[in-house]
Amino acid sequence: MATIKDVAKLAQVSPSTVSRILNEDPTLSTSLETKKKVINAAKELKYNKSKKMSKAIFTLGIIQWFSEQQEAKDNYYLKVRRGIEDFCVKNCINVVRTFKSNPNYLEQIEDADGIICIGKFSNEEVEKFMSITKNIVFLDMSFHDYKATTFSLDFEMAVNEALTYLIELGHKEIAFLGGREFLGEENDNVVYEDYRKKAFIKFCEKNEIDYNKYLIEGRYSMESGYQMMNEILEKKQLPTAVFAASDQIAFGAMKAIREHDLNIPEDISLIGFDDLEMTRYTAPALTTLHAPAYEMGQYGVNSLFAASNLAIKTTIKVKLPCHLVVRDSCMAINE
């Protein structure tokens, strides 16, 4: 039977280092590479695993609904993933990452101890994931029931804060540029309910704002934002403000507004959603809602890891708050 000394010899470290790594000593300062060497050596020698060592060699599967190319264009989901992976590095968790666009992607995570799903998935896909393990968390997707633990954004609170800000500036003609997301069922493309749109309509109805003439939906992209804004600008009566459901849509809208020889915010005020890094460098700097994407990843993996260690089976539904970041793309209307 292998001993700590055997593991230490194979990993080329001291026995005390092996003991501290396998027991997750928080005072130990060592590299991730050293931690991996010790864990792999323990696996190879089939070292008798204590409860803490089982925790140390936890394998997490990450399923992303975006392709790798799409993720490179959208920093929001990249931030979510980085939040997860930074936690895994600190806690010596093995990560197996796959994209839904990959062939046979489910085979890559079939031996995972837990799974985190990032994005939007169909009912059929959700059932497949849950057949692999019940230790599962969905990020940026919410269910009407509690079939699994979910972390998503509090869209209603966020939209209310943005629209209240515009009303306080005197805006009553407010456009909504949204996007449709498709779950991709096997025989049909099912549209995922857009909670930003739902919150926008609810707020407008409550505050007697006529939203129908300025509500347009496309895709969550700069190209779609550009097209939707052009459609708005072709109308005889223009809105005084625009709420874009993502920063990417807002970037496209900015280009369309400039091409029509209009100024932001003098002619049209503009608010985005996400608080991507680029919002600080647009001209003018974009007022937007900060979405805690990185924190969502951290909370999600922390919850999954803790539930696994404590054998917790009760699912939870968490909504993370967003907050308005006021910059230069909005101004008060001169009566």
UniProtKB/TrEMBL annotation:
It comes from Eubacterium album. SUPFAM superfamilies: lambda repressor-like DNA-binding domains (SSF47413), Periplasmic binding protein-like I (SSF53822). Keywords: DNA-binding, Transcription, Transcription regulation. This is LacI family DNA-binding transcriptional regulator. The keyword Transcription applies. Residues 2-47 form the HTH lacI-type domain. GO terms for molecular function: DNA binding. InterPro entries: HTH_LacI, LacI/GalR-like_sensor, Lambda_DNA-bd_dom_sf, Peripla_BP_I. The keyword Transmembrane helix does not apply. PANTHER family: HTH-TYPE TRANSCRIPTIONAL REGULATOR EBGR, LACI-RELATED TRANSCRIPTIONAL REPRESSOR.
